Amino acid sequence: MLYLQQPSRLREQVTHLPLDQLIVIDEVQKAPMLLDEVHYLIQEENRHFVLCGSSARKVRRGHVNLLGGRALRYELLGLSATELGKAFDLERLINTGPLPNHYDHDNHSLALRSYVDDYLREEILQEGLVRNLPVFSNFLRAAALGDTGIVNLSNIARECGVAISTVRDHYQILVDTMLGSFLPAYTPRPKRRTVQAPKFYFRDLGVVNHLARRGLVVPGSELFGYAFENWIFHELSVHSKYSEQFYDISYWQLTTGVEVDFILDDAQTAIEVKGKEKITTNDLKGLRQFKKEYPEVKNRIVVCMEKQVRRNEEGIWILPHQEFLNRLWNGEWT
User: Fold this and answer.
1) Could you tell me which residue, 64 or 245, shows the higher pLDDT?
2) Looking at the DSSP assignment, which residues form a beta bridge with residue 199?
3) What gap in Å lies between CA 86 and CA 266, rounded to an integer?
4) Mean pLDDT over residues 51-68, rounded?
5) Domains of the chain by residue range
6) 97 CB contacts (<8 Å, ≥6 apart)?
7) Which residues are registered as beta bridge partners of 48?
8) What is the pLDDT of residues 182-199, one digit of tens each?
9) What angle do helix axes 164-176 and 153-160 make, rounded to 10 degrees?
10) pLDDT: is 205 or 63 the higher one?
11) Is 97 left (phi over 0), alpha (psi -120 to 50) or beta?
């Protein structure tokens, strides 16, 4: 509250600190006018700051100082399998989601319920990001039920009883608050008709499970397949950002329904995700079709629950999920 009323107090409080002192400001979006003070202290005193926040929406809407050219932007995502190391448990993460407090919690269902009720709904309302909490709550559940699927604004608007523009704005809130991400369609020079609408992935599988009322997600079930795909998207996003390669991730789908889940770096790598233990020839048709459309594709991969690495006569890799991640971080696919 002090900084909201008197942002100049920041300058007064850090003036006596050594110039090499690192200054950390958390939840900076709650006092966006501080950014003018931060700008001054960087420019005039060569001070160093770490500015943390969970939403850029209020900052942008307030037309405040965005520190253009004076700050580096980093995005911190949930726990990855690589970070967890020996503590990684796929089935646990599929159910709890990647936030440390939920992954380590003895009662993750209770922790997720509190998180969704206290943050996703109440704090977003308090921050003024939405005006109608019941409508936003209905939207959250509809969006969770469609996680990993192609976004159909009209269907969700009809289900929630609101305008398409409201649904579009609510999706943007999820993106701005780092709760979700759009996955664009890969559409360069298509020879055949392709789907062009984006897909949407929540960043937190635990939130999806809670909102969609999935209960316990177990291997072999249809819900596990959806959750497994979301998790692989999370791991790809982590790798793209943390490795600082920042490669594009998209999906490809013909209007006939044939698809490939993830296309990396302008068709260098095509990845199909299957949350099952036995991959059949029918599971490869998307990768085969993509090769016909884009013969320059270098790597075609199925990430799955099989136990052994294999490569078929067409050059398609069938990889256990852990082996895929090992090779990804070793630079084999990007």
Assistant:
1) 245
2) 150, 183
3) 33
4) 65
5) 2-61, 81-329
6) 78, 103, 112, 204, 205, 206, 207, 208, 209
7) 22
8) 999 998 876 778 999 999
9) 110
10) 205
11) left
3-state secondary structure string, the chain?
Answer: CHHHHCCCHHHHHHCCCCCCCEEEECCHHHCCCHHHHHHHHHHHHCCEEEECCCCCHHHHHCCCCCCCCCCCCCCCCCCCHHHHHHHCCHHHHHHHCCCHHHHCCCCHHHHHHHHHHHHHHHHHHHCCCCCCHHHHHHHHHHHHHCCCCECCHHHHHHHHCCCHHHHHHHHHHHHHCCCEEEECECCCCCCCCECCCCEEEECCHHHHHHHCCCCCCCCCCHHHHHHHHHHHHHHHHHHHHHCCCCCCEEEEEECCCCEEEEEECCCCEEEEECCCCCCCHHHHHHHHHHHHHCCCCCEEEEEECCCCCEECCCCCEEEEHHHHHHHHHCCCCC
Average pLDDT over residues 59-88: 78
